[in-house]
Design goal:
globular, 13 helices, two-stranded parallel sheet, single chain, binds 2-amino-3-ketobutyric acid, about 325 residues, about 15% strand
Length: about 325
C-alpha cells in the first residue's frame, strides 16, 4: 500500500513526501520522496525529531502487523498497531499546535473490526453497515477498532478537561479495508491472503492449496482502487465528511468462485483446498460483505474494478508480465 500511495501522491499533488519505514524504499519509488527515513514508529525520540524537523499537513499511517501475524504475537501487535498509532496521533497534535491549524490523519482500518459468533449469524447478516457487529474476535481487530476510537477522541475530545481552549487539532479519517489484491506484492501475515496467494502462485505456475473452505466469503478490492479511495477521501472537503470511518468494497466472491475465475485465465492451474481451521474461524468471524453507501454519499466513492475487470484489465496482465516474461 505504501508503494502505491507514494506513487499516487507524487503523481497527483506533487507534494513533499517524508517516508518513514523499517526497510529502505524500493528503487522504483525512492525518487518520489523528498526524505527517506529508516526507523521505527515506536522510537519516540525519532518521532520527536521528525516533529522538530518537519511541518506535516497530512500524516498517512500505514504500519501494522496483520491479523494472522498478530495472533502469533498479540503483545507485539498491540505495541505496533496501537502504540505506533498513539505515537503518530501525538505527533499530529504537536504539529497542529506549532502550526496553529488542524493536521489531516489517515488511518487504514479493516473489516476485522467486525465479529460474528459463527457462520449462521454471518450469513444471516449479509452486507453490514459501519455501526453494527463491531465485536472483533482477533487481536488485530481489537487494535483497529480501538485505534478508530482513539482517532475519534484525538479529533473531537482531546484533553477536554485541559485549560487550553478546545480546538480541532486533527482531521482524522479512516477506511475499513476488505481484503486487498495487488499484482505487485503478496501480503504477509494476513488472513485474507488466500486470494492474493492463490493468484500469485498460479501466475508463477505453482500449485496452490487454499487454507479456507470453498464457500468462504469476504469482500475484496484491488490495490489501485484501495489507493484511489485513500486519495479521494483525503482530498474531500471537510464539510462533506459526516463520519470518521467508512466501509469500502468492490467484489465479494467465495473462494470457490475466485478459483473458477482464475481457471478462466490459467486453465492448467492446480488449485486445491487444505483448510487451516483456526484461520478459517477468523475469516468466518468477518462479514460476507460490507455496505459502503456512506462512502458513496459523502465522497462519491466508486471502485474502478469489479472482479471481471480487476482480473482482465489489471491483475492478469501485470502478473503475466511479472512472472511469465
Ligand atoms: C488481514 O487479513 O489481516 C488484512 C485485513 C483483512 O485487514 N488483509
Amino acid at each position: 500500500m505504501g508503494h502505491g500511495l507514494i506513487t499516487a501522491l507524487h503523481k497527483k499533488n506533487n507534494v513533499n513526501i517524508v517516508a518513514l519505514d523499517l526497510n529502505p524504499l524500493d528503487d522504483s519509488i525512492s525518487e518520489f520522496v523528498n526524505e527517506e527515513i529508516i526507523g521505527n514508529i515506536l522510537d519516540q525520540s525519532l518521532v520527536e525529531q521528525l516533529n522538530g524537523e518537519y511541518e506535516f499537513d497530512t500524516i498517512y499511517h500505514l504500519a501494522a502487523l496483520l491479523s494472522t501475524r498478530a495472533e502469533f504475537s498479540p503483545r507485539a501487535a498491540h505495541d505496533v498497531n496501537v502504540g505506533g498509532t498513539l505515537n503518530l496521533l501525538n505527533l499530529a497534535i504537536e504539529q497542529s499546535r506549532s502550526q496553529g491549524k488542524s493536521v489531516k490523519f489517515f488511518f487504514p482500518s479493516s473489516i476485522a473490526v467486525y465479529g460474528f459468533s459463527g457462520l449462521e449469524e454471518k450469513n444471516a447478516s449479509g452486507a453490514i453497515k459501519e455501526d453494527s457487529h463491531r465485536n472483533p474476535t482477533t487481536m488485530y481487530g481489537c487494535n483497529k477498532l480501538y485505534c478508530e476510537h482513539l482517532g475519534n477522541y484525538y479529533a473531537k475530545n482531546y484533553q477536554r478537561l485541559g485549560a487550553e481552549k478546545h480546538q480541532r487539532f486533527i482531521d482524522f479519517r479512516s477506511i475499513r479495508f476488505p481484503g486487498i489484491i495487488s499484482s505487485k506484492t503478496i501480503p504477509t501475515g494476513g488472513t485474507s491472503d488466500y486470494i492474493p496467494e492463490m493468484l500469485h502462485a498460479v501466475a508463477k505456475g505453482e500449485p496452490y492449496n487454499c487454507f479456507v473452505r470453498v464457500d468462504t466469503q469476504i469482500p475484496f478490492i484491488t490495490m489501485p482502487d484501495a489507493i484511489f479511495a485513500i486519495t479521494t477521501l483525503m482530498n474531500t472537503p471537510e464539510v462533506n465528511i459526516s463520519r470518521t470511518v467508512y466501509n469500502i468494497r468492490s467484489f465479494a466472491p467465495t473462494a470457490g468462485e475466485f478459483r473458477q475465475k482464475v481457471l478462466e485465465y490459467f486453465p492448467n492451474a492446480e488449485i486445491g483446498f487444505q483448510i487451516m481451521e483456526k484461520r478459517q474461524k477468523m475469516v468466518d468471524s468477518w462479514p460476507t460483505d460490507t455496505d459502503d453507501d456512506m462512502a458513496k454519499i459523502d465522497w462519491n466513492w466508486k471502485p474502478a474494478h469489479n472482479l471481471d475487470s480487476g482480473m482482465k484489465d489489471y491483475l492478469v496482465p501485470d502478473l503475466q508480465k511479472m512472472y511469465q516474461n
